[in-house]
Design brief:
8 strands; alpha/beta; Rossmann fold
Length: 356
């Protein structure tokens, strides 16, 4: 085979290897972690093995054809391959989401709450499932879980709020728990999902439509911030562990220097691929959402995750008169309530009391 043709064949094998490995990591590893043995798990792991074998064949072929110092070209080629793996694996992982079941025993009833199983439909015709605990004070809060979780993750927060008389609507994001639709773990469908939840609350006789707030964890926190700009009916937002769901979000708080520049490039590439793989449209940045919304925000950050505080400070700078930041020393991601239960209860309920 002529040398140019061998080189082209080797490049094609390497590209296929990167693609197969990236998809295999994004599908196979994630599904194995969440659901164990399943058809997507097997297919994903098979692609992962195939991809690794293809990459190995490409490297071996290059090594046999090239000698001396020219073999050093493997170093930049390996870096390019790593970039390719990142911009394939991450978008696939956040758009090909495995089904997420409720953990056993994690229900409102387990905490003595009288919760009703309810359903409602989004504007784009996706059925969402939720638990509803009726309001005693006329106000209500939509509770949004994080990526790879279900409404069960927000039961502890619901328990606290219900004790203060708030109605609480614990929602399964689309593609999670018992909700229909295709999951998307960057929360790009948040505006539609939260809007449908607010519609539900507006139809309740025990809820004053002018006293509706949203509390979200991680992905749910980012959805809550974004939805506040899209829906003026949302009068208050509590967001914990929110850092960003677009490249524009992270661009505002990533460090400078080489590491920051590299991460910015990777983000732009990976989010562009995400846009190709999901039906959702890229949402406005969190900073734009805070600026466009008239609601007050309480942003809770984990003391062990410096990126959270950096992201929150950017949002506070956007609207200092409406944004509060509370950093919980020693807390891990979305675990402020367990780290500081008394202070969490006092801060969150006081904020909601004042806003709603």
């Amino acid at each position: 085979m002529p040398a140019p043709r061998r080189a082209a064949t080797g490049l094609a094998v390497a590209v296929l290897g990167v693609l197969a490995t990236g998809v295999g990591v994004g599908v196979g590893i994630r599904h194995a972690q969440k659901v164990g043995l399943s058809v997507p798990t097997v297919v994903g792991l098979a692609l992962l093995v195939t991809g690794v074998l293809l990459l190995g064949a490409a490297v071996a072929g290059f090594w046999q054809r090239v000698h001396g110092l020219r073999r050093l070209w493997l170093l930049p080629a390996a870096l390019l391959a790593l970039v390719g793996l990142y911009v394939v694996a991450v978008p696939v992982a956040v758009t090909v989401v495995p089904p997420t079941a409720h953990p056993a025993g994690s229900t409102p009833a387990a905490r003595g709450l009288d919760a009703e199983e309810v359903e409602f439909t989004t504007a784009d015709d996706v059925r969402l499932s939720a638990w509803w605990v009726a309001s005693e004070n006329g106000a209500a809060v939509v509770l949004l879980h994080g990526a790879g979780e279900t409404r069960a993750a927000t039961v502890p927060q619901a328990d606290v709020l219900a004790a203060h008389g708030y109605g609480v609507l614990l929602v399964d994001a689309r593609g999670h728990g018992d909700s229909d639709g295709r999951g998307m773990d960057l929360g790009w469908h948040g505006d539609a999902d939260v809007g449908a939840a607010v519609d539900f609350l507006e139809g309740r006789d025990d809820v004053d439509p002018d006293r509706i707030g949203v509390l979200g964890l991680s992905m749910g926190g980012e959805e809550a911030i974004g939805a506040a700009a899209a829906d003026p009916r949302i009068r208050a937002v509590v967001a914990e562990g929110a850092t960003g769901r677009t490249a524009a979000d992270k661009d505002t708080w990533l460090p400078g220097g080489v590491s920051g520049a590299v991460q910015r490039v990777l983000d732009r590439l990976s989010y562009a691929v995400v846009d190709l793989l999901t039906a959702g449209s890229p949402p406005r940045s969190l900073r734009e959402a805070v600026t466009d919304s008239g609601a007050p925000f309480l942003l809770i950050t984990a003391g062990t995750v410096p990126d959270e505080e950096r992201a929150a400070e950017v949002l506070r700078d956007a609207a200092p008169q409406r944004v509060q930041v509370w950093t919980v020393d020693g807390a891990t991601h979305t675990h402020a309530l367990s780290a500081e239960p008394d202070e969490w209860e006092e801060r969150v309920t006081s904020f909601l009391d004042g806003a709603l």
